[in-house]
């Protein structure tokens, strides 16, 4: 029996090693600039539009494969034929409202927010390319804008330009993961999968195609906003990875209400004006509180741009006020930004093994069922559950519950400063007029197998393209409370000795991080991760 246990142990360790080195290969993909393939699907919610601006500023870090208009339970355009649509329990049935059945819901007939963002990107592209050579050409981004299943929320009855585009990407010969965000509903994604099923299910080779697609597709959801994940994707494509997150800073509506003192500064009117809203074409397009804009004229849920009105005055005007009015010019929301933050090339390698996390939070494990921990509830959900607007105390309580367990690093200041730097790139026609990231090099490979009780020396070299002064520290990113803690000889030295305790368990993967921050304006942070597998 003892021999059998030893054999089982060796068997498990072998697969841990195989998993580790497979993961390292994926990490090396990022290091070698074979960028993550990303498709954005989004509905015309104003925070989606803000998230899209940030995403385009980070299009250096990913391969943008699609920018697709989508519907949701909160936005759909109708079929233009007078067909009326109604789904029980949607936003338009709450608060005593009787808006639908209707032909269109909260969708401007002239809606083109994705086109607007890309055309704005085109205006600032001559500046952006001077700061990072990997910005895609505007003509390319225009070529991947597609219209998805936008007529009715949750409707997957027919193909669309967007669903066909996703289908073609899933079936192509590129074996790399295809990350598809769902900032709105998932009907366009679901239709792509349904079309594949309809075409191939009765044919030879269906099992291989289904396995290929399931292995390739990674859905990055901002909730299930039209029910198509639960109704179609989950039961029919159970092996598709559905990557949800927790434990990160709040980028959503009302972030001010639950922000720590450290984070609140980056949401203020003064910070937003200095770093975002004053920064050229993108700054003008970016939405802030009380900016005088409205995405759809007469939308009773979109009071965010109405300036100089109290909650009571807005209600008297007919608006559904679910979030208290904030200071004019302050943070309004980017409720979908977290979906792509772990794909960024900041050195944390957060997407190779999503559980340990990055700027977008820590991935939920398969055993955890959840709503999205990263966002405050949407207006309809909140009202249905509580009958009241979000308050500072209720938001703080939810934030506390969302971050229970092992403390997670506060990446929000670094992420906001990074965003601010890229906004400055968009208005700076000279490399010397803006700040850029420090560069980190290690004297050894950034992955190693170490036995319990052994040590390893490693040295880093740091340079800064702007000749800024830098500060640095080594620390361990841990996933759970009983995970082995590394011993680091001197966390504030570039040359360190790390020791794996003798009590470490074989098969554990430990993550050591070198964090480097410059003193430029705004200060920028870069990371280098070292992966350690505890083995024999």
Summarize model confidence as the mean pLDDT.
Answer: 87
Radius of gyration: 24 Å
**What is the count of β-strands?**
16
Structural class determined from secondary elements: alpha/beta
| Uncertain regions spanning at least 5 consecutive residues | 1-32, 367-396, 398-404
Second-tier CATH architecture of the largest domain: Alpha-Beta Complex
CATH H-level name of the largest domain... which superfamily? Ribonucleoside hydrolase-like
Largest sheet: 6 strands, parallel
How many helix segments? 17
CATH topology of the largest domain: Inosine-uridine Nucleoside N-ribohydrolase, Chain A
Order of adjacent strands in the largest pleated sheet: 3-2-1-4-5-6
N- and C-termini, Cα separation: 22 Å
Overall spatial form: globular
How much beta, percentage-wise?
Answer: 15-25%
**In CATH, what is the class of the largest domain?**
Alpha Beta
What percent of the residues sit in helical stretches (DSSP H or I)?
25-40%
Number of domains: 2
Question: What characteristics describe this protein?
Answer:
single chain; 536 residues; Immunoglobulin-like; 2 domains; four-stranded antiparallel β-sheet; 16% strand; globular; disordered N terminus
């Amino acid at each position: 029996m003892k021999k059998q246990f030893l054999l089982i142990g060796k068997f498990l360790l072998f697969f841990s090693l195989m998993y580790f080195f497979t993961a390292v290969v994926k990490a090396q993909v990022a290091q070698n600039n074979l960028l993550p393939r990303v498709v954005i699907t989004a509905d015309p919610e104003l925070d989606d539009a803000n998230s899209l601006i940030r995403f385009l500023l980070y299009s250096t870090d990913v391969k943008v494969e699609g920018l697709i208009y989508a519907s949701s339970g909160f936005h759909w355009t109708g079929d233009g034929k007078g067909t009326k649509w109604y789904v029980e329990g949607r936003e338009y049935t709450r608060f005593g409202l009787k808006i639908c059945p209707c032909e269109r819901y909260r969708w401007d007939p002239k809606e083109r927010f994705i086109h607007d963002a890309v055309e704005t990107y085109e205006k600032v592209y001559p500046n952006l390319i001077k700061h990072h050579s990997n910005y895609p050409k505007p003509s390319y981004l225009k070529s991947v804008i597609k219209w998805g299943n936008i007529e009715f929320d949750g409707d997957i009855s027919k193909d669309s330009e967007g669903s066909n585009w996703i289908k073609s990407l899933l079936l192509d010969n590129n074996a790399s993961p295809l990350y598809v965000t769902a900032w709105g509903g998932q009907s366009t994604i679901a239709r792509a999968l349904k079309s594949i099923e309809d075409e191939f299910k009765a044919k030879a080779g269906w099992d291989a195609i289904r396995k290929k697609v399931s292995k390739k597709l990674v859905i990055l959801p901002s909730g299930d906003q039209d029910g198509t994940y639960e109704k179609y994707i989950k039961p029919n494509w159970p092996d598709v990875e559905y990557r949800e997150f927790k434990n990160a800073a709040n980028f959503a509506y009302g972030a001010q209400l639950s922000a720590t003192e450290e984070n609140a500064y980056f949401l203020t009117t003064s910070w937003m004006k200095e770093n975002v809203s004053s920064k050229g074409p993108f700054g003008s397009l970016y939405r802030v509180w009380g900016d005088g804009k409205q995405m759809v004229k007469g939308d009773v849920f979109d009071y965010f741009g109405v300036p100089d009105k109290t909650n009571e005055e807005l209600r008297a005007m007919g608006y559904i006020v679910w979030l208290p009015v904030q200071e004019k010019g302050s943070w309004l929301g980017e409720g979908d930004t977290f979906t792509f933050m772990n794909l960024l090339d900041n050195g944390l390698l957060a997407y190779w093994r999503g559980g340990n996390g990055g700027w977008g939070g820590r991935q939920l494990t398969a055993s955890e069922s959840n709503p999205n921990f990263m966002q405050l509830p949407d207006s309809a959900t909140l009202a249905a559950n509580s009958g009241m607007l979000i308050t500072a105390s209720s938001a703080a309580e939810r934030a506390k519950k969302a971050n229970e367990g092992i403390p997670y690093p506060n990446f929000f200041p670094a992420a906001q400063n990074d965003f601010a730097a890229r906004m400055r790139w968009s208005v700076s026609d000279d490399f010397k007029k803006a700040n850029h990231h420090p560069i980190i090099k290690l004297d050894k490979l950034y992955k190693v197998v170490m036995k319990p009780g052994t040590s390893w020396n490693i040295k880093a070299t740091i340079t800064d393209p702007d000749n800024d002064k830098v500060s640095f520290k080594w620390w361990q990113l841990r996933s759970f409370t009983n995970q082995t803690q590394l011993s680091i000889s001197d966390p504030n030295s570039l040359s360190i000795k790390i020791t794996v305790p003798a009590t470490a368990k074989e098969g554990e993967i430990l993550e050591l991080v070198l964090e480097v921050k410059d003193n430029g304006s705004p200060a920028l942070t870069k990371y280098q991760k070292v992966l350690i597998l505890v083995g024999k």
